[in-house]
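Message: A physicist's question: would you kindly supply an amino acid chain plus fold tokens?
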Amino acid sequence: MEPRHSFQASPTTRRSFLRTGALALSGLGVADVLRLRARAQETGRSAEDTAVILLWLPGGPPHMETYDMKPDAPAEYRGDFKPIPTNAPGVQVCELLPRHARVADRFTLIRSVAHDFADHGGGHKRFLTGRDPKEPTGFVNDYPMVGSMAAKVREGRNVGLPNYISGVDQNRSDIDVFSFGAAYLGSSYGPFPVIGDPNSPKFAIKNLVMNAALASQRDDRETLLHGFDQLRRQTDRSGVMDAMDEYGRKAMQLMTSEKARIAFDLSHEPDALRDRYGRHPWGQRALLARRLVEAGSSWVTMVLENPTPPGATMPLYSCYNWDSHAVNCHIFDDARYRLPIYDQAVTALVEDLYDRGLDKKVLLIVTGEFGRTPRISYSEGTATKVKQPGRDHWPSAMSMLVAGGGMRTGQVVGSTDSKGEHPKDRPLTPNDLWATAFRHLGIDTEKTFPDHGGRPMSILPYGEPIRELLGS
């Protein structure tokens, strides 16, 4: 389904990470990528087995309907819903998030992050790079996305699957849809894209294409897995691995890796666990993220836009992503539709990380590029044709969830004023969040890389790890 209210129209498809025709080695794109990386060996490496999962909520989730409710604010601010208590003393969430309430002792809410860029493009670039963009609009990065910087520092790690992976909807894989570009680090440090709904019977990792003969047969998971086996056998028999140079061998190792094959295959998970995450794109992406970091990937970004389960139709009153202007959706009806799905996916991931002993290895971050206007506005809906409530862009206040990473949990960091308009206590920036994430990964944020002009650029220009999160 194409986005009905997307903030970027007509996204184009990014070139395949591995091109069809894997045995035509002269055209093996990933080998070229590996060569480019080897020519720029100015990296450090974290000895720690740590990872980050970023659940990205593009469009900007409403803080007043999720994690920072203001029940005592005037009616034109507070909205339709009430806060409920959680199992963590003093922590409240929206009544549409009852599963959050049961596991709040395992996460922290941050309510006081803000920045100055209200456009989606500017907001994406500001939040995801840690720097003010040169242009306040548009999604092409001037500076590397944080996941790309982590991939650059950790390029020496060879774990049998990509170090940096993203999951996106169909037709949303272009690197500039969400400002995921690597800028001056080079395109080889962008994410390896996993495209489509992992719950679909026809889901396949289209960027791990086996060979040209299979290209017309990739109709289901069984064909994809057969392709892995066939390529491995053909490669071993032909002796072609011995004829390839170092980088080609690494490329083929990725494509024929048993570890990669298993990590990307959700059929290895019990049905009960898949049901617990939810049989919808968000739930299965969250589960896939857990599998990928458990297998050794350093950074996995999963984009949560349209939550509609397979076979269902998105309601007219809802929005494709989190961009809840009144012209796009009825914000309260949209929340009633999307928040229970969000509630299930996020809390299942939080619980699963803890249940599997990954709560120290993996830092989970759930956020979008900004919040929504505290004051409600009204317009005629483009789809519904009736007057309805919504909230507009608001970078001056936003809320987010963090869990795992050995961090302190069961708390709220920061606050906003009585109407949810601006930080009141403990004002923070996106850089403080990323400084915390890089600290978890063992990455020095003062490490520099040359930009296009050869000037040394630090990973972050400023920002301090959030002290309230740091473990003892």
